[in-house]
Amino acid sequence: MTLSIAYLGPPGTYTESAAIACTDWLAQTANTPSVLCPCPSIAQTLRVTASGQTHLAVVPVENSIEGSVSMTLDTLWQLDMLRIQQALVLPISHALLSFAETTNTIQTVYSHPQALAQCQGWLEAFLPSVQLVPTNSTTESLQHLGNNPTIGAIAPQRAAQLYNLPVLAHPINDHPDNCTRFWVLSLEPSPGGNYTSLAFSVPANVPGALAKPLQIFAQRGINLSRIESRPQKRSLGDYLFFIDIEADATLPAVQSALAELKTHTETLKIFGSYAVLPVAKVSASSNDS
Fold it and tell me: Can you give the pTM of this predicted structure?
């Protein structure tokens, strides 16, 4: 059976590179062929998989410079039937694409909000007066280039190769070790691994409401590698908390912690246990199927 993999398109995005790495992982571990299915947004990527239209979804969850991807977390909370199968860590190296001869003529730069934020220092140093315009993906920003020397777009070098577009500057991200963690999700149970991701809401915004859940893990010697708060979109001060722990959910200590955590939370959602796979850079000539 060929597995379909939803990802944030169009082709050439960093998420497509992560999805290509996912196809390699599937080929090596399960000898399973796959096909990539581009989607217009992160939310749509998750929804088509939650509805069974695709087998897997690949979405960005956290960047080393800009932190968590809020759209992924918010949508996953709504679609809590999805389970994490694997995490992929991909190096990110941004390029400025433009038909301009120099940066002096550029007046507007398009890209995904995460990419714009990850290049903020470079933009302030070399293009301090340009208008920054967000797009749904880095590759979508290329649609605005035309042959206009006043327009620039921040995108992967791979996208420049795929669409035969000139690279004016590279790399332009603010830190050389920029990387993004992606999740591979499906409706299947998680396979297990060294990391477990979960989220919860607390019954009330009162002193100690968050301290008690965190103490549950500390008392058992379970390390938290990430904690992120997101508004629950009901009222001010009403938050959800996303947590990654460095342990498999099947371990007795973790099961005990989760059982106790449930008594201190309003809603508890466990997204699964999984392994993390570092990914080398994906070239433009990689097989997309």
Answer: 0.88
